Amino acid sequence: MNHASRSSLAPINRGDLTRRRFVETLGIAAAAAVASPALRGQSPTEKPLALGMDTHSLRAMGWKAPRFVEYAAQQKLDAVLFNTLKQFESLESASLRKLKETAERQGIRFYIGVGSVAQHGTLFSSEFGSPEELLALGVRVAADLGSPVITCRIGGLPDRNTPGGIEARIDEVVKVIKAVRSRAVDAGIKIAVEDHAGDMRSEELLGLIQAAGTDVTGVMLDPGNAVWAMEDPMRQLDLLGPHVVCSSVRDWMVWETPDGATFQWTPIGEGLMDLPRFVSQMMKLCPAVPFNLEIISNSPRPIPFLKPEHMAMYPRLRAADLMPFLALCRRGHALKVETAPAGMTAREFDQQQQRADLERSIAAMRRQGVGRNA
Fold this sequence. Notes:
- By secondary structure, the chain is of the alpha/beta class.
- Helices cover about 40% and strands about 15% of the residues.
- It has a single domain (about 45-365), classed as Divalent-metal-dependent TIM barrel enzymes (TIM Barrel, Alpha-Beta Barrel), CATH 3.20.20.
- The chain has 12 helices and 13 strands.
- An 8-stranded parallel beta sheet has the order 8-7-6-5-4-3-2-11. Strands 9-10-12 form a 3-stranded antiparallel beta sheet.
């Protein structure tokens, strides 16, 4: 869930297209929400995947938790994932339990995250104390809100260049999880570790949760971030699926460039994701996990794997390990960057685009029969 700044690639103005697409989205989402199970390709007796949203999908809104709950109820979602504690107006138990009651009346379940818990990671913040104190606080907040998991992570690609490399940061996270283990077990909460912004490949994440103990630790699946680590996201799901306890999903596009590749995330159904296969694999491997949408788009990021300094961050990576990713690059194509039209501020543009992207993605998931509240 890295949120790097927008690319400086030459932009084009597609404001009129964006406005039309936003209006179209509202109609598509409304139609999909009321479609019968049969029209959505779902057996009347089959329990579908739950459908949720990661609040980062609407990051430009500046909303606090109650407004996200209101929006999720309007969209008839089943879950809301907060990957930061900063969106809660209060972390007092009474306030959190009241928010939980409000969500439960709408059929919405919470999933909670705390961010980096790697002491010497590039993204760790001591705002809530030490990594152990932060994770322990997260467990308590999750218990108050009824979240079955608490998500955490290392940081991002630069952590592979920190002293000791990614192995040292993995060891730090394992140590923190073990320190908080008894609290999580007592609360009946699993600790979900995310692959974030290229910090870990799937084998490394699997090794982390095994070292921490799979009875208390699972995977926070982010297939969009698998691309950043030069992986095919479908391979990631195949490998990690049995350990997934939370998700944060968007579509992806990646294409070849002179230095290697560039990728850009997209709304669901507008990239390279084989959506029916992805949903089918989640139903098979982790059917209790909501399909939480974290839609980020319009922001290309380079993967200069043809430069020695980039590959130096992956000293154990073999050429064969890159083959699925290279095949993905061959299938992709470059995407253009949209900018705000004249008379619209950048924030207004981002708000409009983020909401339109999310609601198109919700509609795409409804067409796959995903979602229970609708």
